[in-house]
Design brief:
Blueprint lengths: L6 H19 L7 E4 L4 H10 L3 H18 L6 E4 L3 H13 L5 E11 L4 E3 L17 E10 L5 H10 L3 E3 L1 H12 L5 E2 L1 E3 L9 E2 L2 E6 L1 H6 L1 H4 L11 H4 L5 E5 L3 H15 L6 E5 L2 E3 L2 E2 L10 H8 L1 H11 L6 E2 L2 H29 L17 H6 L3 H22 L1 H6 L3 H21 L5 H10 L21
Parallel strand pairs: 1-2, 6-12, 11-12, 13-15
Antiparallel strand pairs: 3-4, 3-5, 5-7, 8-10, 9-10, 13-14
Length: 470
């Protein structure tokens, strides 16, 4: 976190939020956490370049990430900053839980990528550069504390093979398994405080070292629940629960290999499912500040509206693949699917009901979703779940066109019209209920419109817009 958030960060946030809202609709008790990883050397370097202190830099960018959550209509139960005293206490607590048999001090020389905050072997580089950040790593020589990752080789391999640690998509699971089977090496879990310039969480009992940022950052899953204080929320990790991580494909090594090994060493439960999404791209290139491909999510939300942006990220981007972001494509989907699809259905149906004096609609509290909807969510295919809902929207719109209720209305055939209105309203209410994980404001607005004493005509949910240039 050493720059303003770009639209690529929104992809992960809305995926996690949709999953959380879906389970809450089902009546499940959930806990949704996100936050900012701030104790990295790259933040120190970025602060130097900006002429500010590291603390000022991370305060600025953490505020921006919080604002992105708000702009995307996301309210996590906990937003964890890894510079917070509470997180520091949690990281120190976790450090003391790691088995002493799994750590040892050692002199080390290696090639370090500041962007990844990780060491590389020569064979892992591409043309001498980090394959993710396309930069040459820096040679580092220092004394660190190491973790015996090699001791967990067979255990992690078994967890992945048996599905006890579930990784989706299958291609990523196979990629991770291949990495594990190639041989896990012990690695450094501290950095010298001198090289870190004093930035980071000191190792308990050894101020010459700071805790490796990826050990510190991963601990947020526990510190955010108060596992170190015995908080009631800790039961989300230590009790009978379904622990799901949502992350990008460039950080799976830390979440699917290092993190399970740390937890095994500490005697704590493992995550159940790791969902690995692809990159958001522009013209086939990963969105990033350094590449000049960054797209401002706040400007995009202001132009199209939050639910339209959420819809695009969840419908047009396959959840496990790289997907191209295009304002032109977003504009097309806005008008075809939202304005002319769902928005038109709500406007025309409520207008018919008002004109025909339909009255009150007796809605079900929890309508049954269309076939295939829950199955799509069970495999985390948000795009397919939305496809199910939009098939229903198209079906109702087609039926309205076929029946021509305005002809019945003109002929005064109200007894014929109102039963059909009830059928259409039932379908629309089902859509409104189950669309809420994706488009929370839109779904709630439709539910509210169908909940009064009398159905009245509604203003357009998605007014027509001019195309927005990149």
């Amino acid at each position: 976190m050493n720059a303003e958030p770009h639209v690529g960060f929104a992809l992960e946030l809305v995926q996690a939020d949709a999953l959380n809202r879906y389970h809450r609709l089902l009546g499940h008790r959930t806990r949704f956490q996100t936050g900012t990883d701030e104790n990295a050397l790259k933040n120190v370097l970025a602060a130097d370049a900006a002429g500010v202190s590291p603390a000022d830099l991370v305060d600025r960018y953490s505020k921006a990430f919080r604002e992105l959550c708000t702009a995307l209509n996301i309210q996590p139960d906990r937003f964890v900053r890894t510079t917070e005293p509470d997180h520091r206490a949690g990281a120190e607590w976790f450090w003391t839980r790691i088995s002493k048999e799994d750590t040892y001090a050692n002199d080390y020389q290696g090639l370090y990528c500041t962007g990844c905050e990780d060491f590389f072997l020569e064979k892992d580089l591409v043309d001498g550069r980090c394959p993710i950040h396309q930069r040459e790593p820096v040679a580092v020589s220092e004394k660190n504390i190491f973790f015996r990752l090699s001791a967990y080789q067979k255990k992690i391999e078994s967890l992945l093979e048996t599905g006890r640690l579930r990784v989706l998509p299958e291609t990523r699971r196979n990629e991770i398994l291949s990495f594990v089977r190639s041989g896990l090496r012990d690695f450094s879990i501290t950095r010298s405080a001198e090289r870190a310039r004093g930035w980071g969480i000191p190792v308990p009992g050894d101020d010459s070292q700071v805790i490796y940022v990826w050990l510190d950052a991963l601990t947020n899953y526990l510190s955010g629940l108060g596992c170190h204080t015995g908080d009631e929320a800790a039961s989300f990790w230590t009790g009978e629960s379904n622990r799901i991580h949502v992350l990008g494909r460039d950080v799976w090594k830390f979440h699917a290999v290092y993190w399970p090994a740390f937890l095994l060493s500490a005697g704590l439960p493992l995550p159940d499912t790791i969902l690995i999404h692809g990159f958001l791209t522009v013209d086939g290139r990963k969105i990033s500040k350094s590449s000049g491909q960054a797209i401002d999510p706040f400007a995009t939300i202001r132009h199209f509206g939050v639910d339209a942006v959420r819809y695009y990220l969840l419908r047009a981007i396959a959840p496990f693949d790289d997907g191209d972001f295009s304002s032109d494509r977003l504009n097309r989907l806005y008008h075809s699917d939202l304005a002319n699809g769902l928005g038109n259905l709500v406007s025309r149906l409520t207008r018919i009901c008002e004109t025909s004096d339909y009255g009150k609609f007796d809605r079900q509290e929890k309508p049954t979703a269309s076939e295939g909807f829950h199955e799509a969510f069970e495999t985390f295919r948000y795009d397919k779940a939305l496809t199910v809902l939009w098939e229903k929207i198209r079906s109702i719109n087609r039926d309205i066109e076929t029946c021509k209720p305005w002809v019945w209305l003109k002929a005064g055939e109200i007894d014929r019209l109102h039963p059909k209105c009830t059928e259409w309203l039932t379908g629309l209410h089902t859509i409104a209920h189950w669309v809420q994980p994706f488009l929370p404001d839109t779904g709630q607005a439709i539910v509210n419109a169908l909940s009064g004493c009398r159905i009245t005509s509604q203003a357009p949910l998605f007014p027509r817009l001019k195309a927005k240039s990149q």
